């Protein structure tokens, strides 16, 4: 697969019906609809990413901390 067309979405969720789960699904759906060649992979981390600290290394972590749904689109590079 061409790396230019591979991206990841990182979000947290507790139950599948959480606001973040809906946000992750909406972002994935929009990406598939508007850029069909863009391959996305959603990584859903538990809680606020405490078990995977590297998932908190972006601006979205403050939203998670304050209880707001958030996703982190990334090209999976070490940011």
Outline the biggest β-sheet: 3 strands, mixed
In N-to-C order, the SSE pattern is EHEHE
Structural class: alpha+beta
Q: What is the subunit arrangement here?
A: single chain
Protein model, in words:
It is a single chain. This protein has 79 residues and is an alpha+beta fold. It has a domain at 48-79. The protein has two helices and three strands, in the order βαβαβ. The protein has helices at residues 19-34, 60-65; strands at residues 6-12, 39-45, 71-74. The chain has a three-stranded mixed β-sheet, with helices on one face.
What keyword list fits this structure?
single chain; 79 residues; alpha+beta; three-stranded mixed sheet; 2 helices; 3 strands; 28% helix; 23% strand; globular; disordered N terminus
Write the layout of secondary structure elements.
Layout lengths: L5 E7 L6 H16 L4 E7 L14 H6 L5 E4 L5
Parallel strand pairs: 1-2
Antiparallel strand pairs: 1-3
Task: Sum this structure up briefly.
Helices cover 28% and strands 23% of the residues.
């Amino acid at each position: 697969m061409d790396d230019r067309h591979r991206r990841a979405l990182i979000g947290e969720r507790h139950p599948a019906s959480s606001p973040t789960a809906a946000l992750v699904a909406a972002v994935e759906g929009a990406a598939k609809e508007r850029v069909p060649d863009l391959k996305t992979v959603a990584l859903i981390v538990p809680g606020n990413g405490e078990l995977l600290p590297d998932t908190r290394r972006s601006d979205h972590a403050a939203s998670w901390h304050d209880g707001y749904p958030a996703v982190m689109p990334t090209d999976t590079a070490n940011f």
